[in-house]
Amino acid sequence: MYISQLSLTSFRSYAQADVHLAPGINVLIGPNGVGKTNIVESIGYLANLASHRVSNDAPLLNFGAERALIRGTLHRGSQRTTLEVEITSGKLNRARINRANPVRAREILGMVRTVLFAPEDLALVKGDPSHRRKFLDELLVALRPIEAGTKNDYERIVKQRNALLKSIRGKSKLTSSQENTLKAWDLQLATCGARLIRGRLDVLMLIRPYMQAAYADLADGAKDAKAIYRSSLENEADENSLETISLENLSQEEIQDLLLDAIEANRSRELDRGVSLFGPHRDDLTLILGPTPAKGYASHGETWSFALALRLAAYRVFGDDDPRPGSGPILILDDVFAELDATRRDRLAHIVAGAEQVLVTAAVVEDVPEALKGHFFQVSPGQVVDA
Ligand SMILES: Nc1ncnc2c1ncn2[C@@H]1O[C@H](COP(=O)(O)OP(=O)(O)OP(=O)(O)O)[C@@H](O)[C@H]1O
Q1: Do strands 103-104 and 94-97 pair parallel, antiparallel, or not at all (unpaired)?
Q2: CA-nearest residue, atom 29 of ligand 1
């Protein structure tokens, strides 16, 4: 798929910008801080309704503005769709499809598919678990947009259950009404949490072979790259029942039962701490390189290769999910080439060059590999022009 016309209003540093993107390779060139990433970030937002750089929407609004608008014309096979998202501070975001009446922004999830490579990806390997959970969840929602609802529901359940736990924290005896309310939240957390965990595991099983192959390709097969889902049941299991628990081959119902059992067996610990100790909000994806975990052990180059391998795997999974011509994801390479050594740079360029649309940002043309020299744009503050 590709986006032809991108229009931004009050988004980041742009009061108004209109960019005519081409299918194939588009390269945005400009010095630091002129707004190159802001452009590709807006396309990522159309895909995920989230930025790859910030976890809340406020910084996306042009400083002082109350709303921002991203509009893109999407071409997917022979289909052409105009998508518009309005980002407002403090209110629910709205979307419009083909200029029809506004709908919940969530309705457009899954329509635009992107795989974005950025320096921030190093956090996938080195950062805290939230980065890896976000990676799995975004891919899950892109493949099965209905799971956006599961994710939102789960976040709400954890928030409300935590508020309840906090309010009764440290109490030695609960009233029967408190006990019943807590039990109702236990069930909701386990039901919704198990669905989210099963979804993440399904995604992991899809990406795993591609990730291993991509790592071997980028790093000359020096070490084997593995990824294992690490559940909170392992992190927080009762000391008496501590064992390695692999959830991969379990059904959603079986995972739900395990979660409920763990919650019930650890009631006093949760009441002591006042937080929900079990569920996908505390899970992680353990990345392993050869004999050691990648986090804390991998070199800078290995860390880059692992992060790139995860993104390339997502690209392949999208290809399998919708193999129709013209449906592959838009690839975005934000400022990555200057960071890579020559071998990784050329391998990555070679792999992505065939995608239907590729957006590359770089400070100088020399940072862009030969294979990716396509349609050039010059970016200056507030402006993007054909070069
Ligand atoms: N909400 C906002 N309102 C106004 N300006 C903003 C907003 N958010 C970011 N900016 C400005 O946008 C600029 C950064 O843009 P961007 O990150 O796209 O730069 P870039 O061209 O990708 O730079 P680099 O090459 O350094 O990565 C900064 O000057 C920043 O002050």
Answers
A1: antiparallel
A2: 33
Q: Which residues lie closer than 8 Å to 29 by C-beta, 6 or more apart? A: 36, 361, 362, 363, 364, 365, 368, 376, 377, 378, 379, 387
Residues 6+ apart with CB under 8 A from 130: none
- Mean pLDDT to the nearest integer, 25-50: 97
**Overall pTM > 0.90:** yes
Residues contacting residue 148 through CB under 8 Å, at least 6 positions apart: 106, 109, 141
**From ligand 1's centre to the CA of 117, what distance in Å?**
18
Q: Taking Cα atoms as reference points, which of 240, 275, 243, 236 lies closest to residue 259?
A: 236
Among 8, 9, 12, which residue has the most ligand 1 atoms within 8 Å of its CB, making it the best to mutate?
Answer: 12
Q: Which domains, from first to last, does the chain contain?
A: 2-113+328-386 (3.40.50.300)
Check pLDDT > 90 for residue 171: no
Residue nearest to atom 6 of ligand 1 (CA): 13
Place of tokens 């931004």: 8
Name which of 33, 37, 102, 40 is nearest 67 in CA terms.
Answer: 102
Average pLDDT, whole number, for the chain? 93
Angle between helices 176-218 and 147-167 (to 10 degrees): 130
In whole angstroms, give the CA distance from residue 131 to residue 177.
38
Strands (E), the chain: 2-11, 14-20, 24-29, 67-76, 79-88, 94-97, 103-104, 114-117, 225-230, 284-289, 292-293, 330-334, 357-362, 375-380, 383-386
Residue 363, pLDDT > 50, answer yes
Mean pLDDT of 78-87: 97
Report yes or no: 75 and 131 within 8 Å, Cβ to Cβ: no
Task: Indicate if ipTM > 0.95.
Answer: yes
pLDDT of the residue at 91: 84
